[in-house]
UniProtKB/TrEMBL annotation:
<dbReference type="InterPro" id="IPR002293">
    <property type="entry name" value="AA/rel_permease1"/>
</dbReference>
<dbReference type="InterPro" id="IPR029485">
    <property type="entry name" value="CAT_C"/>
</dbReference>
<feature type="transmembrane region" description="Helical">
    <location>
        <begin position="490"/>
        <end position="510"/>
    </location>
</feature>
<feature type="transmembrane region" description="Helical">
    <location>
        <begin position="348"/>
        <end position="374"/>
    </location>
</feature>
<feature type="transmembrane region" description="Helical">
    <location>
        <begin position="550"/>
        <end position="568"/>
    </location>
</feature>
<feature type="transmembrane region" description="Helical">
    <location>
        <begin position="221"/>
        <end position="243"/>
    </location>
</feature>
<dbReference type="Pfam" id="PF13520">
    <property type="entry name" value="AA_permease_2"/>
</dbReference>
<feature type="transmembrane region" description="Helical">
    <location>
        <begin position="197"/>
        <end position="214"/>
    </location>
</feature>
<comment type="similarity">
    <text>Belongs to the amino acid-polyamine-organocation (APC) superfamily. Cationic amino acid transporter (CAT) (TC 2.A.3.3) family.</text>
</comment>
<keyword id="KW-1133">Transmembrane helix</keyword>
<feature type="transmembrane region" description="Helical">
    <location>
        <begin position="72"/>
        <end position="90"/>
    </location>
</feature>
<feature type="transmembrane region" description="Helical">
    <location>
        <begin position="425"/>
        <end position="445"/>
    </location>
</feature>
<keyword id="KW-0472">Membrane</keyword>
<dbReference type="GO" id="GO:0015171">
    <property type="term" value="F:amino acid transmembrane transporter activity"/>
</dbReference>
<keyword id="KW-0812">Transmembrane</keyword>
<feature type="transmembrane region" description="Helical">
    <location>
        <begin position="304"/>
        <end position="328"/>
    </location>
</feature>
<protein>
    <recommendedName>
        <fullName>Cationic amino acid transporter C-terminal domain-containing protein</fullName>
    </recommendedName>
</protein>
């Protein structure tokens, strides 16, 4: 240890165990050492064995391993089916893809499946509750993990608030109250988008928070029951759509004078823009990976639970999209409640709208249960890492759940849902999801091709980092050409083909020249490095389909995250890992006997 670091360690130990935050003077000294601490901590990667032993011990009691693959499939279905279809399908169809929204869902589903493979390899090898945060912490270090973890929590909180407010609208439809404003309280003087108080949404979020604090297994059972009923509603919608629909609606707009016709009225660009929007529908499978610490047999249950749920949900989404497109021409679809509104104008079929509203309400409840389970575990693991207050990491000894993290995020989400409208919330969600999936895909390649150990990592890291950077740059060039080059013409097609060829050549050269340094013992991503590279490419491409305001908001939030890391988290982490103030060095716990391969 260098002299400056030794002085710091002495000062922290003199501070009564509180380290950098024991007093204003101690915090001032810590701020003065910020560059040194950033250099030591920002890229510091934790060993997997440390994550599963010493770091996990900071939560006190352990989470109960009570989940099996049927629970995970149910959680995956419950987490994905509900929010996406009932919130974003109408807008993606009306404004972007038209009837081709079914292809948008297929593309988004493929992207989600490739990312799911990357998540699964990490979750099987590192069965802890941290999900992408833990995966990036053991690969790229704590700064990348913290930036990703903050975006994950943002994704969940904003998505949950948006979905909870949509629950009010569908509950109203189920009981015959069409206008959501009748269930909300207008507050004069507040800006538009923040001036309608939704007490129903707040009540739902708080009720689910109590449920997930009580027990994970019981929450899974409730989710399973609601999911089975909800899937029955989905099949009902599909059957009604095919029965009552008209195939001509797949190519014929309601107003052909003002709107283009055809299955792809806005071309391939509209399909991919639609895919970026409906990607919100696949938020949920990553929450399954956060349950890894509570899975009985991770090597068997996690691959089935994560990948299986993505495949089933993709099929359901595509069927629902086709049925909706058959019911109405794309330019006549109601963007707020596309399925239930499709039956309102049909004589004698108004009751179907009420049934769909009830089914959507159940789906929204299941997606909230799963997402709130996931967000609490992310925050719990960030607390374990020392980068957030340690009380957030505590697991209650009786319920075996992260009660503090669950309650804190439940209250915060409820406060956001109380005032904020759906449009304000949705734009922040897809970009955070795509960014996190992009990072995990890069991480699984890095971990396979860079050997553990300081010296070995330094020697082998540069070829892999160069490949990841070059490939991302090629994907970005392809995306910019697609987005900005004039439509049509041989020149654009030639440039896009050239970018695709370079991308394929880059992956092929990397595979031929750089040997794998690590083979997973239990489950690994097939087709390495092609599958994670395809995930990287698709995520970059879908990121390029989002609008400018989304990037502005994402930039502001990421800047705020960096500020929190520099002013608080790096110092808390330094105290925990370097000074020994909060580290349980003697704690070497083994995995529970119930964790079987």
């Amino acid at each position: 240890m260098d002299k400056g670091a030794l002085v710091e360690a002495t000062e922290c130990s003199d501070g009564g165990g509180a380290g950098s935050f024991s007093s204003l003077r101690a915090y001032g000294r810590a701020l003065a050492q910020t560059p040194r601490r950033l250099a030591r901590r920002a890229c510091a990667a934790t060993a997997p064995s440390e994550e599963m032993s010493r770091v996990r011990a900071r939560s006190g009691a352990q989470m109960a391993r009570a989940l099996r693959w049927p629970d995970l499939v149910g959680l995956g279905l419950g987490g994905m089916v509900g929010a996406g279809v009932f919130v974003t399908t109408g807008r993606a169809t009306r404004h972007y893809a038209g009837p081709g929204v079914v292809v948008s869902y297929a593309i988004a589903g493929l992207c989600a499946l490739l990312s799911a493979f990357c998540y699964t390899e990490f979750a099987v090898d590192l069965p802890v509750a941290g999900g992408a945060f833990s995966y990036l912490r053991v690969t790229f270090g704590e700064f990348a993990a913290f930036l990703t973890g903050a975006n994950l929590i943002m994704e969940y909180v904003f998505s949950n608030a948006a979905v909870a407010r949509s629950f009010t609208a569908y509950l109203g439809t189920a009981v015959g109250v069409d206008a959501p404003s009748k269930w909300r309280i207008a507050v004069p003087g507040l800006p538009k988008g923040f001036n309608e108080v939704d007490l129903v949404a707040v009540g739902v979020i708080l009720l689910i928070s109590v449920c997930i604090c009580y027990s994970t297994k019981e929450s899974s059972v409730v989710n399973m029951v609601l999911t089975v009923v909800h899937v029955a509603f989905i099949l009902f919608i599909v059957v009604m759509g095919f029965w009552r629909g008209d195939v001509r609606n797949l190519t014929r707009p309601a107003d052909p004078e003002h709107n283009p016709g055809g299955f792809f009225p806005h071309g391939a660009a509209g399909v991919f823009n639609g895919a970026a929007m409906v990607y919100l529908s696949y938020i949920g499978y990553d929450a399954v990976s956060t349950m890894a610490e509570e899975v009985e047999r991770p090597a068997r249950d996690i691959p089935i639970g994560v990948s299986g749920s993505v495949v089933v949900v993709t099929v359901l989404y595509c069927l629902m999209a086709v049925s909706m497109a058959m019911l109405l021409p794309y330019d006549a679809i109601d963007t707020e409640a596309p399925f239930s509104a499709a039956f309102k104008g049909s004589s004698g079929w108004g009751w179907v709208s009420n049934v769909i509203g009830a089914g959507a309400s159940l789906g929204i409840l299941t997606s909230l249960i799963v997402a709130m389970l996931g967000q609490a575990r992310y925050l719990c693991i960030i607390g374990r890492s020392g980068m957030m207050p340690a009380w957030l990491a505590k697991v209650h000894p009786r319920t075996a759940t992260p009660v503090n993290a669950s309650a804190f995020l439940g209250v915060f989400t409820a406060a956001l849902a109380l005032f904020t409208e759906l449009d304000v919330l949705l734009n922040l969600v897809s970009i955070g999801t795509l960014f996190v999936f992009y990072m995990v895909a890069n991480a699984v390649v890095y971990r396979r091709y860079v050997a553990p150990g300081d010296e070995a990592r330094r020697r082998a890291a540069w070829p892999t980092l160069a490949f990841l950077g070059a490939f991302s740059l090629v994907a970005l060039c392809f995306t910019l050409l697609w987005k900005l080059a004039p439509v049509g013409g041989v020149a654009k097609a030639g440039l896009l083909a050239a970018c695709g060829a370079v991308a394929v050549a880059t992956v092929g050269a990397f595979q031929a020249l750089v040997p794998q340094a690590h083979e997973p013992e239990l489950w690994g991503v097939p087709g390495m490095p092609w599958v994670p590279a395809a995930s990287v490419f698709l995520n970059v491409f879908l990121l390029g389909s989002l609008d400018r305001p989304s990037y502005v908001r994402f930039g502001f939030f990421s800047a705020a995250t960096v500020l929190v890391y520099v002013l608080y988290s790096v110092h808390a982490s330094y105290d925990a890992e370097e000074s020994g103030a909060t580290v349980l060095d003697a704690a070497k716990v083994q995995d529970e006997a119930g964790c079987k391969v």
